């Protein structure tokens, strides 16, 4: 079976490729990725010589790029990870999010529809986020039936892409599934996202920017657990269905930052607490207060639940980033520095980076 994995050079996509190549010997992967600032082939270095893995550089929003790959390879299924994924960047420049997340998903669907024809076995699996549901207050959780209410250009563009996937399923009888997952963490996450960013700032002994009062809550899932959920849904999920995927692990941002300070300090045998680096900065506009996923559907129907508990996952993650300082330093180059200084110029007045 040959899978077209889009966005496979990013954080979750590369973890998924490692996972699926390892657990399914019958699977061949074509990784189709534009290699934006977030795409990094170093994540897949060990697969370079694997005959079941091929990389193709291409843009999901360019019909010709997508046609070329479908022309060249017989594709048995698509898993669409490709996206612009960072909320703060979507505030600085929304249009690239509309282009990739909406036009890109539509282009991919349209080409897949043509090549899949009426073969009901050929599945299009779209990877989405819980952020499409908007913000929760102190209680409650997102179910698959929760109405969409996105707050950021990122989540609005992901919501648009989800609607298109469902519409192609209903209108053209395509075999589609969608997974809406909570915040992931683990190896290969680009250090603009909270957890790797904070680890890097602690290591460098620089201010740690916490938005608002740090009271916002996210439901964290170790990336390997997400990969296992995607595998279950791709192979066993029901046509046309949506599955919510979450970690049952709600944490306030400030608690995560404190924990990371303590874990890194312990590992580096530091005497002075890095908590002194915490700097409360201007809040993110439209900042969703709380996300939480109700996992009961995927648990009941497909027998999936998270296996890695939060404390264990955080220890593994800290260890990975400390051991892979070079991986981080290699990507903290031109584009990242530009983004970081634009993003934090106002927020961190005394920033020295
Ligand atoms: P990422 O930013 O780390 O990786 C995105 C990848 O997509 C990169 O390799 C990039 O080069 C590629 N890409 C971007 N635009 C492209 C285009 N036009 N054509 C082809 N490739 C393109 O993102 P991630 O965190 O790995 O997220 C993957 C998917 O999972 C996204 O769809 C995201 O919305 C979703 N998601 C992420 C999280 C999370 O916590 N990171 C949670 C839920 C859902
Ligand atoms: P992020 O990793 O950007 O994921 P998302 O916005 O998709 O949930 O942010 C996670 C939480 O951490 C979010 O509430 C915003 C907050 N945050 C900070 O407080 N400081 C930071 O420097 C970043 C990047 C995020």
TrEMBL record:
**NCBIfam families, per database record:** dTDP_gluc_dehyt (TIGR01181)
One Pfam family name is GDP_Man_Dehyd
Q: Which reaction does it catalyse?
A: dTDP-alpha-D-glucose = dTDP-4-dehydro-6-deoxy-alpha-D-glucose + H2O
Q: Which residues form the signal peptide?
A: none
Q: Which GO terms describe its biological process?
A: nucleotide-sugar metabolic process
Species in which this protein is naturally found: Muiribacterium halophilum
List, separated by semicolons, the cofactors it needs.
Answer: NAD(+)
Q: What is its EC number?
A: 4.2.1.46
The family line of this record is: Belongs to the NAD(P)-dependent epimerase/dehydratase family. dTDP-glucose dehydratase subfamily.
Which keywords, in A-to-Z order, does the entry hold? Lyase, NAD
Q: Which PROSITE patterns match?
A: ADH_SHORT
Name under which the protein is recorded:
dTDP-glucose 4,6-dehydratase
Identify the CDD domains for this entry. dTDP_GD_SDR_e
The NAD(P)-binding domain covers 4-317
> Can you name one GO molecular function term for this protein?
dTDP-glucose 4,6-dehydratase activity
